Description:
The complex is a heterodimer of chains A (263) and B (442). Chain A is 28% helix and 9% strand. Chain A is an alpha+beta fold and 263 residues long.
Amino acid sequence: MAANADIFTEREPLGFPLVSSIAVHVLLFASILVYSFVAGRPGQNWGTGGGGDAMGVTITSTIPLPRPPVETTNILANDSKGLTQSQPKVEEVQPPPDAIPIPDRNVKPKPKPREKPRETAQEKPKPVEEVNNVVPFGQGGPVSGPYGSFSAGGAKGGFGFNGGGDFGSRFSWYVRVVQQKVSENWLKYEVDPRISAANRVYVTFDISRNGQPRNIQVEQSSGVPSLDQSAVRALQRIDTFGPLPPDYAGNQVSVEFWFDYKR
Amino acid sequence: MKKVFPALILLFVSTLHLAAQTDWIRTGTGLGVEKIRIAVPDFKSLSSDPQAAGLLKVFNDTLWNDLDNAGIFDLVSKSFYPLDVPGQPQDVKFDAWGNPPPNAGMLVFGNLNVTGQNLTVQGWLYDIKNTSSPQILGKQYNDQATPEAARVIAHKFANEIIFRLGGGINGIAESKIAYVSNRTGHKEIWMMDYDGANQHQLTHSGSISLSPRIAPDGTRVAYSAIAGGNWEIQMYSLDLNRNVSFPRFGGTNLSPSWSADGTKIAFSSSRSGDPEIYIVDSTGHALKRITAAKGPDVSPTWNPKTNAQIAWVSGRTGLPQIYTMESDGTNVQRMTDQGYAVSPAWAPNGQFLAFAWIRRYGPGAPGAQDIYVMDITTKQFVQLTHDAGRNDFPAWSPDSRHLVFQSNRTGTDQIWTMLADGSNQKQLTTSGQNSQPNWSFK
């Protein structure tokens, strides 16, 4: 026992290892901090929703005009309700029996502020039972049925970006312009003609304040070099998307654009 | 240790801050981008002034036509509109416009007010599907209370809408078309608005004037006319409303064409005997010849994007074919392979050539002359007119989405416009014979 205890009587010098350990940890955290400033990106949220229910239109780009839709459903003859709920009928507000009649010139308009809260409470729409895939009233976002102005695909019910800021929901019209311009300028004949289908290629770029695309990079390759190149060239062909909306406070927007190739 | 520990905690917490400062958009191809469904109800009149009704009609009609002609919108038919039409932002009922039957994606609305000699128009462009922040544009215009001013305001507002929703390409609502008309008895140069309004005569030479080309800055029109017994290039100034001097070259000088920066003019001259392509600067000096082959070389047109290439018609192999070359004459490439191809026009985006082609030319062949658009890199082409008379002299609009051309399908030569995919063909002129149109650069 005494012999065993002897081993432990010799105190290890703790000072130097502790300091060096702290130094290493400080260095580690500092490097993490620096790294997160230099190359910060939001997490990898690829393919939220995928292209599952998007219409597979092959966009040829010989003429710089938007293509007419492949299918047109006759709006009038179609008796489906569409995806959005109709607005619930607002009941007419009957003035309460003790309502004060329209004031005369001589009567002071005192009762008005008292009536207001009653009116707004009655105008709130009553909840209607929801059908399964119907988009709840007022939360439809930019998508609405097969003849909507543009189908976002991917996220159902509008632009739900994870951690991507609210640019997409506030300026969905600008996103649509970006989508249309890139699709128009993508020349599919640049891809190797032996390829019939390929994985998606993801390209990222920034749009500066005046609408110019910059920093075009292939984020995730499709495995087909000619497809990656044609995607990058599509973006290089574009001079401008139009200036960023004046209401938008930021100096640039980052775009992650995917290209689906199907011959 | 006690001092170091909180410092470590602080360091650790600070690394959790993510450095993504920019907003992100995620979207892709194959998502079926269609034309924007836009609803354009009539603007409301806020004044009871009797001339306001007339101005309002001019404004509404012009705005509707400009947006209809833009080629990027699908205008919702007026029969689908709800009965109460908004004049101010607070009148807009999003569900009435955004749901079927109108099912609009965008709404254009506003009001017009006349006070004395002043006309004030307020207009808004709303994204109907975005109820929280719908406003894309809100504009106010002031001008005199005349129909011309109402038309100009409508053109300006339509251009703003097209610029915003069409991806930064300017609208063409204020552009002009120069053309040749013989309705006075002689072929003179005329000019009109892009929609056919305001047709007026420019030259009064009393002889024959052909192939007008508007300068890129819009101040001059170059054309060819007989002067001193020869065909020479002449220059008409729109600022001074008369011709300005331009050198004479001798021989037959035809089809001037401006480079998009306005510094050079290419034309065809037979001063050496055989028609060849020459280049001069905008004052007509520094003459340089760039083709040297036997056979006529005529109708040059510059690449407006690079200002370094020229497409032209050459008869060096027999029938006229379209060729391209660098502007110093090198790298000659043949674009058409057969038939009779004339009148090339290079699209402002640099990617396409429009020209008139008789693909099967010769005795016994049907011989219809139609407008074709060819992609320059792949030489793939699309036929835009079918079974409709002789179509010739196509010219591109500045947004590369429209073409103007001459067609005799009604019996006489008239000026027509269409979208660059051949749809929406409209006649612009009706009186006399009208030909050889040219669209301004802006």
